[in-house]
């Protein structure tokens, strides 16, 4: 069984915020490439891993349908908060860097 995976508007805004943060810190062309790769890696992990095994990842709230996907990247990574909204659909609600305090 395969799930469709969507990013909520708030998650899209989080990706833009994360990309802008990485761009601000980029001092080389290599760092710019890494910023782009980070966003691609987040999208790919969400699309591929959640489409196949959304129930495999840790619960994030009292609601067992809300879970977190850890996305390794470089020395750290990202965390995607998502909800299994039906038997065929997953919605990514928010994305943050692992070192951030909480979702924005």
Give an account of the 3D structure:
This protein has one domain: RelE-like (YaeB-like fold). It is 39% helix and 29% strand. The protein is built from 2 helices and 4 strands. It has helices spanning 9-25, 29-52, and strands spanning 4-7, 66-73, 76-84, 89-97. It has a 4-stranded mixed beta sheet. A hairpin with a 2-residue loop joins strand 2 (66-73) and strand 3. Helix 1 (9-25) packs antiparallel against helix 2.
The CATH superfamily turns out to be RelE-like
Q: How many individual β-strands?
A: 4
**Arrangement of strands in the largest sheet:** 1-4-3-2
- Give the fraction of residues assigned to helices: 25-40%
Quickly list its features.
single chain, about 100 residues, alpha+beta, YaeB-like fold, four-stranded mixed β-sheet, 2 helices
SSE order and pairing:
Layout (H helix, E strand, L loop, with lengths): L3 E4 L1 H17 L3 H24 L13 E8 L2 E9 L4 E9 L7
Parallel strand pairs: 1-4
Antiparallel strand pairs: 2-3, 3-4
Helix pairs in contact: 1-2
Brief summary:
The protein has helices spanning 9-25, 29-52, and strands at residues 4-7, 66-73, 76-84, 89-97. The protein is α+β, with helices and mostly antiparallel strands and 104 residues long. Strands 1-4-3-2 form a 4-stranded mixed sheet.
């Amino acid at each position: 069984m395969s799930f469709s995976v969507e990013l909520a508007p708030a998650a899209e805004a989080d990706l833009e915020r994360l990309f802008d943060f990485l761009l601000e810190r980029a001092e080389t062309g290599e760092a710019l490439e890494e910023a782009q790769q980070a966003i691609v890696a987040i999208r790919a992990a969400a699309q591929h891993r959640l489409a196949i095994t959304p129930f495999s990842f840790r619960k994030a709230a009292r609601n067992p349908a809300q879970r977190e996907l850890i996305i390794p990247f470089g020395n750290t990574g990202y965390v995607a908060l998502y909800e299994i909204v039906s038997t065929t659909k997953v919605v990514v609600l928010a994305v943050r860097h692992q070192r951030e305090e909480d979702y924005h």
